[in-house]
Amino acid sequence: MVSIPVYATSSLVLSGNSIPDTLVITEDSNATDEKGPLMTHVIRLQNNGPSFIGPSSIEILWPIRLQDGKTLMNVTGVTMDTGMPCTFTPRINRDSSKQNNVTTFIDDVSNSTIYTLWADCASLPECVAIRCPLASLATGADSAILISVQSRLWHDTVFAEDASFLHFIEILSSASVTVNGTVYPGIPYSPHPTATPLEIQTEVRVQYEKQRTIIKTTPIWIYIVSSLGGLLILIIFIAILYKVKFFQRKQISQEQRELLTERRKSVRRSKAEAPSPDDMEVSPLQRDGSVAGLIQE
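Above: the chain sequence. Below: its structure as tokens.
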């Protein structure tokens, strides 16, 4: 007897986006709320088949705390369009560095050092694991699952004195899916990976009231190159006009000048020799017409 293993398999696609893509947080000395602006990460799971999937779960990792113990973000809500509730579990990263993951680069315009804090669960010491269960998932776009995670930056942490050098904060969340079974009795699910983990990024621009900000001005070399380019085009245009003798007036030869003079004299003589109306002979018909006109009068 030949035994052939049978598995149910499907192609799962995780996608998502940040709302907004870029967030601006502004220092306000008059603000009383320690929480900053709202950001939302939307995760979408679609089953492209061929099989339906059974009990499954989507896990979302969300960064919440920095190396010094300060709260960076606060999750304010999670919603799933199936209506099923999601659970929250703290996730401690004992392998994280003792220093915040800050990178630098030199801005070409201002020639200053730009500091960026990377906030992700691979580098921060504490995250929250959000687990959203699924009973099953059919195939097709109409059956796709949407999960929205809302969170706010901790205003006091971003604008703390020891963080006043930051220009950008990159917030990264990640999502993965685990399939635990199928909807087909007695048929196991394929043990192979079903979906590539998803990572969603939000760029946060930090603006201070008194600290320096990046002012991007147009470099002087752009004006110099533009002026030289315009001058070069003008010189080429003038050279082309000179090449086609645009600036040279056409000279009339002596023979042509004498011919024009003779033609002018001929026209004057013709006008002088033409008879005047008083010298023209009046025909009998014209005379009769004149008499008839007098009789009518």
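Residues 106 and 113 are 5 Å apart (CA to CA).
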